[in-house]
Design brief:
heterodimer; A: about 260 residues; alpha/beta; about 40% helix; B: about 280 residues; mainly alpha; 9 helices; about 85% helix; about 0% strand
């Protein structure tokens, strides 16, 4: 568990429990804070509840018990409608990029703008979307292509540009490098760091299997095990820890790379 | 002997338990679909009103179904009138072919066949599309973008199906009657004046309206079932396949079952207001 004391966190989970079948707890007293303005990585073995935690923070799942505060609001008390409005403060890059396959790259990035900034005219929409696509380094010659016509790396860039479209206060990355080759992985890692640095004061949360990337780019890391936080701290804390499971996980994870 | 009785008793218990579980899960599923439908229908008028999405789905459900509906209707009209011609000829009543075909088409075959074809074509596509969006995290992406997914994905599809089904049913009725006309007048050489006169004398507008109302209800039913299955898809490609399959099969069964009950309700209504059924 963490000894770090964080005041005014961007996200705070307090004793969050979740069971889907009433018997087994996927989250079993999850407690941690995400410091405002930091890039935090959530790591852990498969099936330890990483994606479930993310879905709780995004309000897609309701906790069985416990409290989730995001930007000072207890989101477990939000109604469905309030949560829909609140989610505009989030940007999410999904594992599969989750681009709309019947829309072009540009239309994908324009979509959240059309939904939430109806005051923008068509020319302004394209201008904002193009700026975001340039920010993630996508060549304009791909703007009018469908997601199926571009590479996996370009899809990730487009997904990130779409996540950035509304200038979110918190950016989430759900396993952004899973299934990518080492060169693309490094490109996506660098993109995350650059995006985080470019958005001064903003908070980023990354769910990852990639320990190397997590330790290299994150300010803080939380390792989950059996629905709880096993260790929360800076990357250095993970190399100094005496917790056997963490030591083994880190050693194996780093060796694999 | 006691052992045999015990075994039978255990078997009966197991069957009862299985039936109970199945019954409970069916009830629970019906409850979930009803809730899903109510929530989605409530969002139809919500802002922003998604008329462009409605038009886009109407193009898919309605316009793109016209050819297959027309083709089915033409041959249904031809086949039905041919069979009826053969039957009525035995009683020297071939003049009754036109009105009998018209009655059968407008009241029953038109809405039911339109419902079955459109449920298979458009309903299946709805379930597959939404299922793919679910497994590819596109619905989650919409959710976290602050878009009400039921209002954006479900409500326009339901509206499009409810609007397009009566229109397609009208097309079916018209083309099927053209088929009947071709067979009766051009192929077996009945008098066209008698063909139309008998239809005009025996068919009332309310029969056509009955079919149109039924088809709107069938549109609602298949749109709700197929979008529900697609929206709640679990697993990968297998899940999408299952959602599409169950969506289409449940819709078709529901259309046929509901057809009987709606027909009975309409007859009951006619009896209550004193109109001949």
């Amino acid at each position: 568990m963490s000894d770090l004391k964080i005041s005014n966190p961007a996200i705070r989970l307090v004793d969050v429990k979740k069971t889907f079948d009433g018997k087994e707890f996927v989250l079993n007293g999850m407690t941690f804070d995400v410091p405002k303005g930091s890039l935090m990585a959530i790591i852990g073995f498969s099936g330890t509840g990483k994606s479930v935690v993310l879905k709780h923070i995004l309000g897609l799942f309701q906790p069985t018990s416990g409290k989730i505060e995001v930007l000072g609001h207890d989101i477990s008390k939000f109604s469905h409608k309030e949560m829909i409005v609140f989610r505009r403060k989030f940007g999410v890059l999904f594992q599969s990029a989750a681009l709309f396959d019947d829309m072009t790259v540009l239309e994908n990035v324009c979509f959240p703008l059309i939904e939430h900034r109806p005051e923008l005219k068509e020319k302004e929409l394209i201008e904002v979307a193009s700026t975001k696509l340039q920010q993630v380094g996508l060549d304009p010659k791909h703007y009018n292509k469908l997601p199926s016509e571009i590479s996996g790396g370009m899809q990730k860039r487009t997904g990130l540009a779409r996540a950035l479209a509304l200038d979110p206060e918190i950016l989430f990355y759900d396993e952004p490098t899973t299934g990518l080759d080492p060169i693309l992985t490094e490109m996506v890692d660098n993109l995350i760091v650059e995006t985080h640095k470019a958005r001064e004061g903003s908070t980023s949360v990354m769910i990852s299997h990639d320990l190397d990337a997590a330790f290299r780019i994150a300010d803080y890391v939380a390792m989950l095990n059996a629905g709880q936080v096993l260790l929360f701290g800076t990357p250095e804390d993970f190399f100094k820890t005496d917790i056997e499971l963490v030591k083994r996980f880190v050693a194996k994870g780093m060796k694999r790379r | 002997m006691e052992n045999v009785i015990l075994k039978i008793s255990e078997k009966m218990d197991a069957i009862t338990e299985q039936f109970k579980t199945k019954f409970q899960s069916t009830l629970s599923e019906i409850g979930k679909i009803t809730l899903f439908a109510t929530e989605s229908i409530k969002l139809i008028g919500a802002k922003p009103f998604r008329y462009l999405e409605i038009v886009r789905h109407m193009e898919f459900v309605g316009n793109e179904s016209i050819v297959i509906i027309s083709l089915t209707a033409l041959f249904t009209g031809l086949a039905l009138s041919f069979q009826l011609y053969l039957g009525f000829k035995m009683f020297n009543a071939v003049n009754m072919v036109g009105p009998t075909v018209a009655l059968g088409i407008t009241r029953e075959l038109g809405p039911v066949l339109t419902g079955l074809i459109v449920a298979a074509r458009a309903g299946g596509a709805m379930a597959a599309r939404l299922g793919t969006m679910r497994v590819n995290e596109q619905i989650d992406a919409l959710d976290v973008m602050g878009v009400d997914t039921k209002q954006y994905l479900i409500a326009p599809r339901i509206v499009a199906a409810v609007i397009c089904m009566p229109l397609l049913c009208a097309v079916f009725d018209f083309v099927a009657m053209v088929g009947a006309y071709i067979l009766c007048v051009k192929m077996v050489e009945l008098d066209p004046a008698i063909f139309w006169d008998r239809i005009r004398a025996m068919i009332e507008v309310r029969y056509i309206n009955e079919g149109l109302i039924k088809s709107a209800i069938f549109g609602l039913v298949f749109a709700v079932i197929c979008t529900y299955r697609g929206f709640n898809t679990k697993g990968g490609a297998k899940g999408v396949g299952e959602a599409t399959n169950t969506g289409v099969v449940y819709s078709m069964v529901m259309i046929i079952v509901l057809d009987y009950f709606i027909t009975s309700l309409i007859r009951l209504f006619y009896l209550m207001v004193g109109i001949s059924a």
